[in-house]
Amino acid sequence: SGKQHVLMLHLLQSMVLVSDLGPGQRRRLAELIQQIISLFGGKRMNERIRHLLYSLGVTANYTGFSYTVSAVELTAQDYDRLLMVTKWLYPEVASQFHTTMSCVERNIRTVAGIAWLRNPELLERLAGCRLDRKPTASRFIAILAAYLREHSVPA
Fold first, then answer.
1. Residue 12 has pLDDT above 90, yes or no
2. What is the spatial distance between Cα 24 and Cα 76, in angstroms, rounded to a whole number?
3. CA distance 36 to 124
4. CB-CB contact of 115 with 54 (8 Å)
5. Can you say whether the dihedral through the CA atoms of 144, 103, 65, 27 is positive or negative?
6. Using one digit for the tens of pLDDT, what is the confidence trace for 19-31?
7. What string of DSSP letters covers the chain?
8. How do residues 107-134 score in pLDDT, each as one tens digit?
9. Closest residue by Cα to residue 62 from 74, 50, 75
10. 145: which of 6, 15, 70, 75 fits an S-S bond (Cβ 3.0–4.6 Å)?
11. 10 Å Cβ neighbour count for 42?
């Protein structure tokens, strides 16, 4: 599409001068690359996250379902978001859905609880370790994002 071509052109123009980039320009280049990745691979990642949630027993009728999909997708793109979930990740998801970050966290916590109750065995397999208690919202996001990243399928 036209949007894809414009983004690709901006990326190529930026890459020509990559050695001369300042901090702000490097950040802008990283944002452009993420947009291109989202355009070409976002749908596949979105489908994989949705499938994982369904496998865990979480259905799309929960408000937190979409919030979780978005949070995992953003985290898979940049793990640093997990370092500041309340200052970066939850506000970003909240902005997408026109809600508050506390609403996002609460609804993702609900989704984590449903997954824990309905399919704890699969959740532990995804985590790669035994879970003694229901994961927090941020831990649940981290588990799903790490699993998807480790088991990524080439586009």
1. no
2. 22
3. 33
4. no
5. negative
6. 566 667 666 666 6
7. -HHHHHHHHHHHHHHHTGGG--HHHHHHHHHHHHHHHHHHHHHHHHHHHHHHHHHTT--TTSHHHHHHHHHHHHHHH-GGGGGGIIIIIHHHHHHHHTS-HHHHHHHHHHHHHHHHHH-HHHHHHHHTS--SSPPPHHHHHHHHHHHHHHT----
8. 999 999 999 999 999 999 999 999 999 9
9. 50
10. 75
11. 15
Tokens 């970066």 belong to which residue?
Answer: 88
Record the tokens describing residue 114, joined without a space.
Answer: 């449903």
Residues in the chain: 155
Are 14 and 29 within 8 A, CB to CB?
yes
Coil, strand or helix at 62: coil
For residues 116 and 134, is the Cβ–Cβ distance under 8 A? Answer: yes
The model's pTM is 0.72
**What's the CA gap between 113 and 105, in Å, rounded?**
12
Which of 36-45, 108-117, 137-146 is the least confident region? 36-45
Token representation of residue 119: 């399919």
Are the CB atoms for 115 and 123 separated by under 8 Å? yes
Q: Average pLDDT of 103-107?
A: 98
Query: Mean pLDDT across the chain, nearest whole number?
Result: 84
Both tokens of residue 140?
Answer: 């649940």
